[in-house]
Amino acid sequence: MSTEIEINSPKRLRHLKLVGVIAILVAAGIVSSGIISRVHAKQTMTTWSADQAVPTVAAYTPKQADAAGSLVLPGHLSAYVNAPIYARVSGYLHAWYADIGTHVKAGQLLGQIDTPDLDQQLMQARADLQNAVANEKLAATTAHRWSEMLQQDSVSQQDADEKSSDLIAKRATVDAAQANVRRLEALESFKRITAPFDGVVTARTTDVGALINAGGGSGPELFNVSDAHRLRVYVSVPQDQAAAIKPGMTATLTVPERPGKTFDATLVNTDDSIAQASGTLLVQLSVDNADGVLIPGEYTEVHFATHADSHALSIPASSLIFREQGLQVAVVGPDDRAVLHDVTVQTDLGQRVEIASGIRATDRVIDNPPDSLVSGDPVRVQQAAPVQAAELSRPASHDAERAHG
Length: 405
What we know:
- The chain is an alpha+beta fold.
- 32% of the residues lie in helices and 34% in strands.
- Helix 2 (116-151) runs antiparallel to helix 3.
- 22% of the residues are buried.
């Protein structure tokens, strides 16, 4: 029996070795398959991540700037003539005859002041004048008599000259007394407060019985009268647009309370200097207001017609990149890689800007570029949104900047 066992043993060993080799090969295949699948998955993920890292951008070609544009700036309306009326004499207000909103004519009585002190001063001045006139008459009679006695050698020349000089002094006293009376009479005329011109009473800051102090414009006015048949319009124009303001040019006005209605205005003058604090040029225009539709002091938008540079290109403001290198615009290169160009803005129209230099009409400008975008980065271009295309074709007058002043 032992002999059979020894004979069969080598066969069983060879069988076990074969099974072990097959198991090793199967395990190696499984491991190799796992490694290969993982490497493939990693490569796929790397490729996908790199593909996803490429930004998708909207590109467009810039449009030629309109030859005629519009500059819209805020302004304020002011009465063509405005007069605050102060008291020239002290006293108490006796009565007022015109309230706010009253249309008055030149010379129309607005109010009257009681001035008892001034009345007494005038009476005293007139009495002094009568006294001076009486003294002057007596001096004239005396001088005439002494002149006749001098011809008869009854008095000396010195005495006659003294009487003549006394007459001259008395006449000077009469002139001074008359001037004082006229001065007080002029002050008396200020008891009547009248309108200096045709207009509307826009303020009444006094009432019956109020104490009136004569002032030179330091205190509150008694009345305020404005002539609003024609209005002045004041506009602060930014320095970069000051060259477009020409004498005689026209503009149109709009006011918030009357949407859709425009008013024609004509440029009258400018202050010919740039304010250091605001960097603006003060412009004055004139607008007819015979129908009284416009109100002095209200806010208005002034639309100036301007002529743009025919070589300037118009792009949305959202395409601009603000970095430490300066103002830039990103364009798509021929190999679908971003290229950043330094640009110069000619006119800022709010939602759109006109570029003077830095890009060409054939460039594909990237709208809303990513903040991290740099030159050489690959980009994926998609068709521009319809809203952006409409934005580019919209007239400049619709997007003109509402500047602040």
